[in-house]
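== Fold encoding ==
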Amino acid sequence: MKTSFLVAPLLLLLGGCAALQGTPPTAVHQPMSVRPEVRGAQASQPGAIFQANFSRPLFEDRRARFVGDVITVNLVEQTQASKSSSSSAERNASLNASISTLATVPLAGLAGLGAEASDANKFEGKGGAAANNLFRGTITTTVIEVLPNGNLLVSGEKQVAINQGNEFIRFSGVVNPVYVTKANTVESIQVADARVEYRANGYADEAQTMGWMQRFFLSVLPF
């Protein structure tokens, strides 16, 4: 009986460790790969030049335009942004008063009395922000949907295993077939609704992640 109480927390701990080693969550369009759709029956005579399941004329290049076709995306993302602002306000005021001579008037004892007052108010504020993003690479995606206007919704993932960690490169977006070259290549800056991800898992990635208890106290502590 006591052994079961010890085994249950251990299994939960192992399950949590396995989840950390799994695939990182993603925001790209799903699914990231599909099989080509069947576009007609096979020709009645095998070996003929015309094949009914390939609706591409002989004079037409083989650019991607069907579900299941592949398009290579050149990642050429580069963004730079900067912002700075400053403001200042200043106000000064002073007041001086004195009584020099009171000889024949009442309150002659106030002769020589002086008064001085001053006020100063100053405010100065500065702010600035800067961001620089650079992403270079190549990934081949799959057409997962053909939109009514002919645009292609593409999505894909590339996994690279390095020692004890995995790196995931993901991309999805809407491609205008006009921008696709004869080699079925398109630049990422020509893709609408583009979503680019570069994530990893492994010991190095876990070491850079804040623990759940530390995140809890960071969210509830007021100081």
User: Anything to note?
Assistant: The CA atoms of residues 10 and 16 lie 10 Å apart. The first helix runs from residue 2 to 20. The beta strands are 70-98, 114-146, 152-162, 165-175, 185-187, 191-201. Residues 1-5, 10-20 have pLDDT under 50 and may be disordered.
